[in-house]
Amino acid sequence: MSWPDQPEYNQIFSDNGPVTVCVKFSDKSDSHRSMPPKTMHWHEINRLIDPADDSFFRSMYFDAYRCPVIRYEIDPEKNLLTIIVGKTDLP
Fold it and tell me: In terms of domain of life, where is this protein from (predicted)?
């Protein structure tokens, strides 16, 4: 897939709803990085599914940089979706 077929974190969620979306960078070399939290409604989770193959996106754009997504964590009790990003080659 190529831009814009993969979602851009800053544009995919409504920023209006009870669910908080957080991003965590899993690699120590990226531990200093952060993305601002977003908000959404639970039904928006379908925006993380690639319509081409009906699976979750395995990469996503963050400020126009493509990064691997290694895991999505859903915590309905806390109204929290966490996107875990793998090792990046960000400058």
Answer: Bacteria
